[in-house]
């Protein structure tokens, strides 16, 4: 499993986390290329189904990255996202897949270093967990 490269989907708030990812690039801070950043208007719009579908479609881990507490442009979107992430984590634990495959992170637009650090640490954590156990089953079922 040493050659396993996890697929990470990162739902990033366009006002904070997505800008932080962009800032990481501008500052030439590296983070794993297997982190696929998806810009969303607000993490509050990321639904449980989006997270679960990402896992079903082959992601080994899902990162939901939003604004710092109290800085959400839509007031409490990041709080709603955190509750949804907790729900998915509990559900994944209940079915034996492991809730640690989903994580919520908070950062401001200027914290490119935080985005790079979180993305790298999360990728390492998922690499240690190994491939998503439902990935193979979902792909076989689709065939």
From TrEMBL:
Coiled-coil portions: none
Positions of the F420-non-reducing hydrogenase iron-sulfur subunit D domain: 8-130
Keywords from the UniProt entry: Iron, Iron-sulfur, Metal-binding, Oxidoreductase
Molecular function terms from GO: iron-sulfur cluster binding; metal ion binding; oxidoreductase activity
InterPro entries: MvhD/FlpD
Top-rank taxon, per record: Bacteria
Protein name stated in the entry: Methyl-viologen-reducing hydrogenase delta subunit
Lineage of source species: Bacteria, Pseudomonadati, Thermodesulfobacteriota, Desulfarculia, Desulfarculales
